[in-house]
Design brief:
Length: 307
């Protein structure tokens, strides 16, 4: 594959920026990659592992002359970073971000973007529970969605160029309205993370009573909860504070459903439980049959594939 941007600046050098650096280097998509992180320790680590071509001590230095700037910091830090880099952005450059929330980032970053610079908010739907400059890997985005939420009137050429970079890193792009993005992600990612955090908290209380049994004998479902609950606390604090309404809406609905099931258990209403679980099983099977879960076992869709 070939060069798409001459100079890419990565602000924030964690899992996502690191994975982008590896993916861009693997395929020669950027002429030069500069990087900056707020903490000296992170910059030192990034230098030590050769994450970028140049690690800069200031964000201003990193973005100077860049034709693509990627904001890869926690959602709550996006506005301050945008204010800091704004006077140093090159005319015609594109600024994108990778934040898990879109409307709040647009509100915080948008006002700082100078005329003649394209701002194209984005969100890769790919990640792990690991963070920091050593966490990134080139294949993170492969076969994953990367949503863009461009504002009306954004230069289509700039959006196509960024989409080209994302596709070259192996991801699939789609476009969405920011408010809709935030609602969809509240259902599919933000509320589930909060539920995982809560469930691990509950088990932690119980563990004191049951002498470590909960963790020792935990089956796969609970292990997944503990993996998710090990995610970066700063990042997730910011997600909930900046997608407050949608997350509270979904958690309200979740609580109502939970009470329905709780009552069915109390009343011994096996039929209601069975019907509910049959519906959710059909939803999961529908997702797999539509080929929308690339991680799922094959279930005989492909002739000759192992089940
Ligand atoms: N971790 C995940 O699974 C995913 C994260 N995201 C989003 O990507 C963004 C980055 O997340 P990760 O790479 O996972 O985080 P990370 O915690 O691995 O890295 C964040 C980096 O930002 C730096 N930083 C923090 N505040 C800063 C500031 N004010 N100025 C400069 N640097 C600063 C930190 O030093 C660190 O290098 C977040 O907005 C997050 O919501 C998006 C998709 C998946
Ligand atoms: O590790 C997991 O299971 C994730 O869900 C990763 C993830 C976290 C945050 C995002 O905004 C997108 C993806």
């Amino acid at each position: 594959m070939s060069l798409i941007y001459n100079r890419v600046a990565l602000i924030g050098l964690g899992l996502i920026a690191g994975s982008m650096a590896h993916a861009m280097r693997e395929s020669g998509l950027a002429g030069e990659i500069t990087g900056h992180a707020r903490s000296e320790a992170t910059r030192d680590t990034a230098r030590e592992i050769g994450l970028c071509d140049r690690i800069c001590d200031s964000a201003a230095e990193a973005v100077a002359g860049a034709d693509l700037v990627v904001l890869a910091v926690p959602v709550g830090a996006m506005g301050d970073v945008a204010a800091e880099i704004a006077p140093h952005l090159a005319p015609g450059a594109t600024v994108t971000d990778v934040g898990s929330v879109k409307q709040a980032v647009i509100d915080a970053v948008g006002p700082h973007i100078p005329d003649g610079v394209h701002f194209i908010p984005g969100h890769p739907l790919a990640g792990t529970e690991h963070s920091g400059p050593r966490a990134g890997f080139a294949s993170l985005f492969r076969n994953r969605w990367w949503l863009l939420t461009p504002l009306p009137g954004t230069d289509p050429g700039a959006v196509d160029r960024l989409s080209g970079l994302i596709a070259a890193m192996g991801a699939k792009t789609d476009r969405m309205e920011p408010g809709h993005h935030d609602l969809v992600l509240a259902v599919t990612s933000h509320a589930p993370h909060l539920i995982a955090y809560t469930m691990v908290g509950v088990a932690d209380h119980l563990r004191r009573v049951t002498d470590e049994e909960v963790i020792q004998y935990s089956a796969a479902g609970f292990r997944d909860f503990t993996r998710i609950a090990a995610s970066d606390p700063t990042m997730w604090r910011d997600v909930f504070l900046h997608n407050k309404e949608a997350t509270l809406d979904i958690l309200g609905r979740f609580t109502e459903e939970l009470f329905v099931l709780q009552r069915a258990i109390r009343m011994g209403d096996g039929e209601q439980l069975f019907d509910y679980f049959s519906r959710t099983r059909a939803i999961r099977r529908g997702i797999i049959e539509a080929g929308q879960d690339t991680d799922a076992p094959d279930f005989g869709r492909t002739p000759g594939a192992r089940p």
